[in-house]
Amino acid sequence: PAGSSAGRALLRLSPHGWPAGAILWKNLVAATRTRRVRQIMLLLVVAGATVGVLSFDPEGTLAEIAGWLAVIWAGMLVVIGPQYVRNDLRGDLLKVDLLRSYPVRGWSVVLAEAGASTLLLTAIQLSLLSIGYLAFLGNSSMTPDLQERTFLLFACMAFLPPVNLLGMLIQNGAALLYPAWVHLGSGRAAGVEVLGQNLLMMVAFMAMLALVLVLPATIGGGAFLLLHPTLGSWALVPASGLTLAVIGFEAALIIEWLGRLFEQTDPASAGIAV
Questions:
Q1: d(CA 265, CA 257)
Q2: pTM of structure
Q3: What is the pLDDT of residues 66-105, one digit of tens each?
Q4: For a disulfide at 272, which of 40, 130, 189, 267, Cβ 3.0-4.6 Å?
Q5: Counting beta carbons within 10 angstroms of the beta carbon of residue 168, is it exposed (0 to 12), middle (13 to 18) or buried (19 or more)?
Q6: Residue 26: partners with Cβ closer than 8 Å, 6 or more residues away
Q7: For 182-186, which contacts have Cβ atoms below 8 Å and span 24 or more sequence positions?
Q8: What angle do CA 81, 82, 85 make, to 5 degrees?
């Protein structure tokens, strides 16, 4: 199909490199094949161009409404996105025997699987934030001003990928630990009981994500308070770097642990119907 060819052309797989990269490539191409994803991305591009033009309208009401909606949705996706972007182990765990037959370490499989969902979710979020940025581009009286909004956009580009990765690792870890509680496969279950289960999973996910972010936020915030008297606003730079380093350390520990868990997973004893 034309969509599949376009996805493969956009995401070419090199014959050399990281072995688990083939799993990452497979999941990304699978996402680009779906008509829904292509339609969403096309809609985001058209919306960005439209609000960018409307932002210079003296009234600017429509652009501002669209901009705030885009920013709010981008923020909400930090919480709800990892539950609904599922091109990872939640889609592939039914083929766990095949995955384990590959000559690839468990941590590599986990990283590749979670990384695919992370990239897709981050792309959607940054697209929404870009729409919000363009929607206020012509507003010279807005606070924060254009320079500060540009800084915030770049800060989101730096922080969203690692935070999303932590979220995806939590979701994939839940699929490995409690497969009976997580819907596996590409289809979506329906029903009142599924709605209640998803709500419980979302509450648990929010608690876990907040818990793993406490340490990097505390260390980064402490570094900023210590350095601010000397560096002023520039203290944000080392504080942000330290925060990202702690998040990366946490993600590495979780990936290593989930990798060992994946290597020890037995479909029959775990309740995974393959």
A1: 12
A2: 0.87
A3: 889 999 999 999 999 998 888 899 888 888 888 888 888 9
A4: 267
A5: buried
A6: none
A7: 182/90, 183/90, 184/90, 184/91, 184/93, 184/94, 184/272, 185/91, 185/94, 186/86, 186/91
A8: 75
